[in-house]
């Protein structure tokens, strides 16, 4: 199976920035990293997991939650099997555990915002934003 490991979380003051990384390895024989849509989701205490951002197989299509649009940027480097989430202008409401996920089922170069579409998940990295 695909192994996903997040890093880059931490504690920052409101208005600050963090850069999250997701490193992928392993996987089913015959599949490559570029065959997966990659997404970031977050879960705050007492809340449901919510979609944050995702990027298509080729990197040409992206989607963002309205709450992070204009502040967060998702990117991928298929040669390095890595997905990045650059988070700027952080707010206390961004505090959550952030997880990356991989979706093989998406058609063509599309994107799903439904976490149920994603087959593989990392353990997550904590992001805490103080006021």
Please describe what this structure looks like:
The protein has 131 residues and is mainly beta. 0% of the residues lie in helices and 48% in strands. Strands 2, 4, 5, 6, 9, 10 and 11 form a seven-stranded mixed beta sheet that branches. Strands 1-3-8-7 form a four-stranded antiparallel beta sheet, with no helix packed on it. The model has no long low-confidence stretch (mean pLDDT 94).
Percentage beta strand:
over 45%
- Distance from first to last alpha carbon: 39 Å
Number of strands: 11
Class from secondary-structure proportions: mainly beta
Large-scale geometry? globular
What is Rg?
Answer: 14 Å
Helix-strand sequence: EEEEEEEEEEE
Roughly what percent helix?
A: under 10%
Uncertain regions spanning at least 5 consecutive residues: none
Provide a short characterization of the protein structure.
The protein is mostly beta strands and 131 residues long. It has strands at 2-7, 10-13, 18-26, 37-43, 50-55, 62-64, 72-77, 82-87, 96-103, 120-121, 125-130. The chain is built from no helices and 11 strands.
Summarize the topology:
Blueprint: E1 2-7, E2 10-13, E3 18-26, E4 37-43, E5 50-55, E6 62-64, E7 72-77, E8 82-87, E9 96-103, E10 120-121, E11 125-130
Features:
7-stranded mixed sheet, single chain, 11 strands, 131 residues, mainly beta
């Amino acid at each position: 199976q695909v192994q996903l490991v997040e890093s880059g979380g931490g504690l920052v003051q409101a208005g600050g920035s963090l850069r999250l990384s997701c490193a992928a390895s392993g996987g089913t024989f015959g599949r490559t990293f570029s065959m997966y849509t990659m997404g970031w989701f977050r879960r705050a205490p007492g809340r449901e997991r919510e979609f944050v951002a995702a990027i298509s197989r080729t990197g040409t299509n992206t989607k963002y939650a309205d709450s992070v649009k204009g502040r967060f940027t998702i990117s991928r480097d298929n040669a390095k099997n890595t997905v990045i989430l650059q988070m700027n202008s952080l707010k206390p409401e961004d505090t959550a555990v952030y997880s990356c996920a991989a979706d093989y089922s998406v058609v063509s170069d599309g994107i799903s915002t439904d976490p149920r579409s994603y087959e593989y998940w990392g353990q997550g990295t904590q992001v805490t934003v103080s006021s």
